[in-house]
What does this fold into?
Amino acid sequence: MLRASGWLAEQHAADQRRFTQLLFASFLAHALAVVGLSIAPTPDAPRLPEVLSVDLVASLPTPGALPRPKAPAPPKPEPKPEPKPVTPPAPPPPPAPKEIVLPKQAPKAIPKQRVAPPPKPAPIDYEDALSQLRNELGEKAPAPVAPQAAQAPPAPAAEPSPDAGQAAIDREIAAWLLDVKRHVERRYITPPEFQRRGFSTGLQIVLTSTGELVGMPSVVRSSGDPFFDDNAVRALMMSAPIPAPPQAGSYTFVFYSEDR
Amino acid sequence: MTRSLARLLLLAALPFAAAVPGWAEERPIVEIRPGKERAFTVAVQVFRDDLQPADSTRAGRLLEAIQNGLDFNGVLLPLAREAFLGPQITKDLASGRRYDCGDWTQSGANALVEGVIDGGGGEVEATYRVWDTARCVQLLRGRLTRPAPDLHRLGAALADDVVKAFTGTRGTADTEVAFISTRTGHREIFVMDADGRNVRAATNSGSIKAFPNWQPNGGGILYTTYLKDGFPDVFLTSRGRSEAGRLLRDVLPELPKYRGVFSPDGKDIALVASVDGAAELFRARKGRRPLRLTNNKDVIDVAPTWSPDASQIAFVSDRSGSPQIYVMDSDGKNQRRITYQSNYSATPAWSPDGRWIAYGVRTEEAQFDLYLIDPKGEVNVPLVVHRRNDQYPSWSPDGRKVIFSSDRRGHDDLYVIDVNSQRLQRLTEGQKDNTSPAWGPFPD
It folds into this structure.
């Protein structure tokens, strides 16, 4: 009995040692995590990828279907239970808290779609689609996360629902796109000879967080007509400052000669 | 443990990803479609006048002429002087860089025109610069000289240059229009500036004139008149650069010639002549045997108009039972009908860019409207729809406008309209008929 209790005591001591080691290892891992996260500055930067939610723009070509973005549009490799990132009235938060990793996968696809030269775009009721989306978001999405919260520095594990955050960001971007589009189009003067020519000019410009242009827009895709290109640059310059973007940085504007 | 580490490293790397080129591509693209504004705004300063002898009104008159020219073109409209935040008068043209672009953009000006008047020997010379205020770059520095009395034409030419600096295509305020008028009691050919000013007679023989058509170099006007024996023939007026008179005296001398239209290079003439009572089309050149383009007995083929590359000719034929627009190669091959809208289509005019043919359509109310149709006959859009007769379209050489005659005031007047059906302007006044306009080419 004594021997047995001695053996048990030894076992217990060994367990305690193992437990202490595990505890230490765990502490070390967490410390490393904290250090890693604290190194990671620019609270906004990692947010950007979520902007990829641009699926709202990507799905524009089919105005009717817009508000109900089919999950396939934004490629999400991880099979998620509910494929509607934006529309669901009550965004369920099933995904594990570690979904912070999401940014890493998402950035790819949507932008590619958007960047793809839009010469062939089927007629899209862009404005209607956006406002439709805005309405839908406004009504159905309970907006659990205010836009401000979406911009808040990364709250590691406390993120209640990535979908809700993404919806807020989508809404913010949709609103900005609408504002900036209206703002610039008011200054985009197009004499008849610049219309219905099948032209489009792509401009890139760096915007400050207040909407000021940094330097001159650069033509990243010419229409082939230097006067049409110049007119696009002129319109953007005349539009400064434009409505403050969701985030400072480089943006692409495409000016078309077609009404639709 | 390893997985955790990898994840940690990934998280740590994220912030740096923001600096990687291409990251910006992930932001949404902003698509901009044409807004409602169709015309730019331009601030035109009063030019400093260095010309002797001094004339206190000269700079003001030139300014007015420039503004009139800009108004006529409609591409850049003058900014009201009260809105100027920059100087009203040009100081000098010495400095190569502007520091007041912001003042002008805040004034609402997309462009700034400044200049100096000089000259001598009975001529006025204007040296000027055109600025794009938004980009703050000089688009053009030019110089124009005109006889002192032609201040109006100088202003018009300058306005046309400003339009070119902004759009790449010259304006047409400094062009001319020929037309038929009964203002002297006979149907004579008259010429006026494109904005309707300065009307003067080009013929004055008392016989009936019809179908004026400009020589492509502006050297003369081809027209139809009747000889003493009652035979119609085509004649050329001279402006000192062409031989005036019966142009095709030796071509088809036995046939009545109803109308001639110069090819774009001015070498050939699409000719309408009567063969056994039926109007047929020929391609004629002085001193050469004409090429017959149509050959349809008992059918009328008339009103030819050349495509700008001279490869095709559009015309009117009643071979289907009613007058319709047809297109053929300029050697007469591949004749095909392109209009089907009504039972009467006439007076085609091919646009300078080749994309459209303007023509008249008789409606069910028996009045004419003007339409634009593409040469393949696939797109047909209204240009002028009005309950009175609108006929005889002719394109401005820049393709921005169409001039036509209309009896909406009770008699025929000439009107001009932008190709997008905007900005209708009446050019002629009085109680006499003015019809059959032909817009002349750009000046040399």
About this structure: Residues 1-25 of chain B have pLDDT under 50 and may be disordered.
